[in-house]
Specification:
The chain has eight helices and nine strands. The chain is of the alpha+beta class. The protein has two domains: 115 residues, Endonuclease III, domain 1 (Orthogonal Bundle), CATH 1.10.340; 53 residues, no CATH class. This is Integrase zinc-binding domain-containing protein. It comes from Endocarpon pusillum (strain Z07020 / HMAS-L-300199).
Length: 213
């Protein structure tokens, strides 16, 4: 059993190591994670074989380069998924971008030293959740306004609604139902029909209505 003094010393060591890591420049942290990541190690190993695969984990092997144990892709430092958010945040909040929109942030990342796999999607996701942008950026859309009710029909079957129910098990040669509802009386007709991959044409639908309603 460890004594209380030893436990306290271990806790202090862990906290100090964590603080030292936070004090590291971001690119140093990216390099550190890059060296020990299993995915990047697999890419480095694949790069050294005689007949490597063309692509692995979304990375084109031909564009990968191992520089002193650090994986570079297209002359840029490959960023591990676990630290991608920190990289995007630093660039998005830098003096050059100052919480710019998607286009400027993506351009800034493209001009940086980092390569982010699937960066286009990840940048958009990060900006949608940026608290500063959500609080300060103006909304450029008009208010949606109030819902407008549909006018009430003056007589039955003046206005109707239709919908196809598909994906049903076949019964007597039919596998779908055309539902027709009168908007005034709410009277319903359920018309069995056959759904085909190319869909039902407007002419066929009109014939079913004329025949059954």
């Amino acid at each position: 059993m460890l004594s209380e003094e030893v436990k306290d010393d271990l806790k202090i060591s862990v906290v100090q190591a964590s603080l030292e890591e936070e004090d590291l420049p971001l690119w140093k942290r990216v390099e550190k994670e890059n060296r020990v990541d299993e995915t990047f190690n697999a890419i480095r190993i694949e790069k050294r074989v005689e007949n490597p695969k063309k692509k692995i984990f979304g990375y084109n092997i031909q564009n990968c380069e191992d520089k002193e144990g650090v994986l570079w892709y297209r002359e840029k430092l490959a960023v591990l998924a676990a630290i991608v958010t920190d990289v995007i945040r630093e660039i998005h909040e830098s003096k050059e971008t100052r919480h710019s929109g998607r286009t400027k942030t993506r351009k800034a990342i493209a001009n940086s030293r980092y390569y982010i796999s699937n960066g286009y999607t990840l940048v958009g996701r990060f900006l949608r959740n940026c608290h500063v942008c959500r609080r300060t950026k103006p909304v450029h859309q008009l208010p949606a306004g109030l819902l407008q009710p549909l006018p009430i029909p003056e007589r039955p079957w003046q206005d109707i609604s239709m919908d196809f129910v598909t994906g049903l098990p076949t019964s007597e040669g039919y596998n779908a139902i055309l539902v027709v509802v009168d908007q005034l009386s709410k009277e319903r007709y359920y018309i069995p029909c056959t759904a085909v991959e190319e869909g039902t044409t407007s002419e066929e639908t009109a014939k079913m209505l004329y025949k059954n309603v």
